[in-house]
Amino acid sequence: MSAKFQPLKRITFALLRMCLLVSVVSLASCEMALIENQQAGFGAQSSRLILYAHLTSQPVQEIVFTIDDVSLETVDGGAVKVLDSPVEVSSLTLQAGQILLKEAVIAPGEYTGLRIRFSKATVRRSDGRMDLALPEGATTVIKTRIDMKRASSFVVSIGWDSENSIEKAFRFQPAMVADAQESSSTGLLLFVSNSGSNYISVIDRSLERVTAAITVGDKPMGMALNPAQNTIYVVNSGSRTLSVVEAAHLDVLDVIPLTAGIGPVEVVFMPDTDISLHGKLYVLNRLSNDVTVINTITRRVMKIVPVGLSPSAIAVDTQRREVYVANERSNSLSIINTVDDTVASTVPVDKRPSGIVIGNDKIYVLNEGSAMITIVSPSTRAIAGSIPLAEPPRRGMKGFDNRLFIANATDSITFLNSGDVATRTIPSGPGPFGMAGDERRGRVYVTVNRSNAVELVEPFGEKVVKRLYVGARPYGLVSLER
Amino acid sequence: MTIRALFLIMMLALCFFLPPGASADMYGQADVNYQKTNTTSNSRSTETTSLINSYTLGVNKAITNTINISADARITDTDIDGKKSQTMYPMVTLSYAPPSMYYFNFSYTRTDVSPSEGDRLSTTNLNTAFSLPLERYPSLNVFMNRTTNQDYLDPHKVDRVTVSYGLNSSYGLTLLETDAGFNYSFNNQTTDDKVGQIKTEVPTHSATMNLSRPFLDRKLRAGANAGYNWSEFTTTSLGAPTRFEQALPRNTGLFVTNATPLVGALTATPALIDNNTAVSAGIDISTTAYRNVGFSFIAAQAVHKINLYVTTADPSIGTYANSFGFQLYTSADGTSWTLAATPTVTYDSVFSRFVMSFSEATAMYFKIVNTAFPTGAMAINVTEIEGMGYITSTPTLVTKYSVSRQFAGLSLNYAPVERVNASYNLNYDHSAQELNDTSSSTMTQALNLNVTALPQYLTINGGYANTSSSSTQTTTTQTSTESGTDTYTLSLASAPLPTLNASMNFGHFVNSVNGAATSSTNNYGTAMFMNLYRGIDVGVGSSMSTTESKASNSTTDATNHYLNLNLTPWKTMKVLLSTSMADSSTESAGQSTSTSSRSTTASASYTPTRKIYLSATMTIEPVQSNSFVLTWVPSTALQGNVRYGFGQDSTNMGATLNWTPLTRFSVIAGYNRTETSSAASDNQTSSFYARASLRF
Lengths: 482, 696
Prior knowledge:
The structure holds two protein chains of two kinds. By secondary structure, chain A is mostly beta strands.
């Protein structure tokens, strides 16, 4: 090292030593403060119940009722309170999509059903809104088996047949069933990572509602699919681990510690050419400006690949066997050759690249800082064109006759046609981010980060058709399709 | 009993006898992966198999609310086509994470690979990081990673150390409505290949700055950014060993006049070794024979040449080289001498010295004796004597070059009213590399205007982007290339009814090299979507494009039309029909060629319950093929998937089974088979794979 860098080297090592000292010295006081401020919440000894409601029939009249209380019935006849404040439910609101009633921390155990107490029910008639008589005891009981395991999450969605819930035109007699968490066909599943929580939500794309939740580590963010095993790798940014989730049984198979890199946020999977069940994972570390390479057989860090400043997005091309990294503060794209895991090339792009979409012989780099898409040719590793946009793009996806869909930083979604011309921009919920598509059902799914939901977009009609509520701060999406 | 057998026994014991909840801090896992692939091509078969067994036993303990320690050991046995290897991976991680304050992490991983063929290899990885993710204050991340790769051979075939350390710091603030962000990063990576004796070091400095401020009552927002990256690549390697001739350091200068040079000590004469060739040492060899002039070393050294420096006014000195009858004597004690050689003598007029060459002799004392002297010569005084020897040296080769990059950008976004939004961006990027003396610059600018002329009925979006790049290389001959692209786009969109929307677009693209357009493309497109009835959606569209290439002197016209029909006859069923027609014709040098393609696909998915999912895809054009997938979930523990597809020349089928008989035990098994046959070849590939996982 040349002499002019010696001071920096000394400063860096001195800082490391000082950091170690600061960590040790402040440990005791910090521990005390934490113990004092410890709040009762979801932990290793508790479980989480996520209660939803959805419609099972098409409503022709507006029925509104208020749920005062929901309790879980225990095996010995007792009850555990779930709801702490009344919730108003409307058939017209449910028509727009499943709603979240409550996310509650519950003691682990087996429960036999749900007891729901109502306080009010009304129906809108031609002559105005009319009060309905409540069912006997103002309570209804739905029998179902709810097995709450320790440190796990469990979804129950109350299915309401609103058209068969009024008896003799005056009594509210709710026809309800409980749809408890269970496996669906993996080919129908959509996984949503909730970065403000510690679980991922599972949406059945056929039913278009949340059907399950899986507890992972703290702040789950990026996800990657291993299609041969039907496993999802989830980056837990807060706990610096990777959860290996088995899609068929909605279970965490393994937890891989991330022993290198700071600020892991994203992950992609590159399948092995010989052993199809396994491959390599590339974890993007936003704060240490590198990519950690992990072998899925050994579960260990194989290599650390330095990239540019503040890497923000990562994408994989399994055909070319290359990984692309957008470096937000370096305004560049790093191209990693996965054969030897080295940076093969660095292409300067536009301002603040924050997303990458792989197209047909094109890499679309979404530059949030300049509202422009830079097209990079993977063959020449040079800029092949650019697309000006009206809104700053953040994330995107390709599909539906080679079209491009963009989630913008300004709470909107832009549609481009197969000729890469922007045709329309529509408003979305606040903070659109992750995107995934379902070609068979004609749906584009978008996480709207600041409203804790996933929006379902009709790609041909270019409009938002439904909104599903998931966990806090939904981030990434992975769709399984066969 | 092997370690893996012990592992497995412990795993089984813990799995079946550990009560739920007791293993909160411990975890273990045993995985078996098997894959067998048969490939038959024109009656020739090949088979590949792989069997990988992994066993993990670990502990994850939260020592306090913020300190967590985890350690595990993993053993992996790999057998790929008979080639076996065993790998052990002990690992320890200590992490300390007080919420919202700072973060500290330390981890150590060691991997030992023992292949059946090849050398045992050990890899260690030590990683430590500290992070201060502070808000409103500059954040700081400091990190260090040290990786070693070493085999167990002596000498090593692999012995490499890679050390990476660095720091990042960011600071964001808002001052006078201006959002500002600053970032600095330093990273130094050193790789020391001790076997190849090659050391590389790359320090990198990066600094970026962002500014953003609203004006005109927030109708105008201006932003700017700038950045500078600088890296220096230094490679230090050792070249091939080379022998160099050099004067050896002497201990004492010696002189005596002695006619019996085989015996007798010499007198110390410092003037002979004072490195002053201008002043005489008082020894005249022009008139007297048997002048014994020499030197001694501290220890015995090999000498192959002696230089005897003289000073004289005799113009014929150059002809006297062989007139002295010089002889070389060596001694181990300075008293008893041995005649070592009669050297070959030449006179070097540049340095005024006699150069005496002989076969290499090793001794502590050397002297030369003149057995004669030239007749009639003028005074020839000795000034200095030195012995020349060889040293073997390995030269150090250092390659050093730097790479730098500067970039800056400006953005303006103006929204005077709600329905109008205009933006302009300008970016400049310059990179230079010292090694090849190359530099490149890129400038991009983009203008975009979005107008909602009639809400719901008409939205107009127009854009222009220009990218120009130039690169220069000056190492041999200066070459410079400039290239550019211009993009013009315009789109009109309307959604007059909730069940109807339509759009039109126009694009014009120009590519140029050194200022001259090389190709241009015009394209036009229309698209319409209609919700005809509940569950019946139709999308139609068409596009036309014309590309003129000046480089190939050709013109290409292309058209594309598509129709999508999306049907939802029941809630449980979705049918998607799509058809497209694409035609293209190219005229070049009076020749015309055309291509045409048709595509028609129908796909259907049927989910009568959550337990059954059936999907089918039928491709009618361009090549007929069909595929069917059935997924069945008979219980929460079991899920099966069957796939079948066939086309004109190919058939493929497969099945996957996911089974979890116990909470702690799961199995995945799958089978795939593909057959393709044509007049020229007949190929089949089938593979079976399985993975079983046992854990607690």
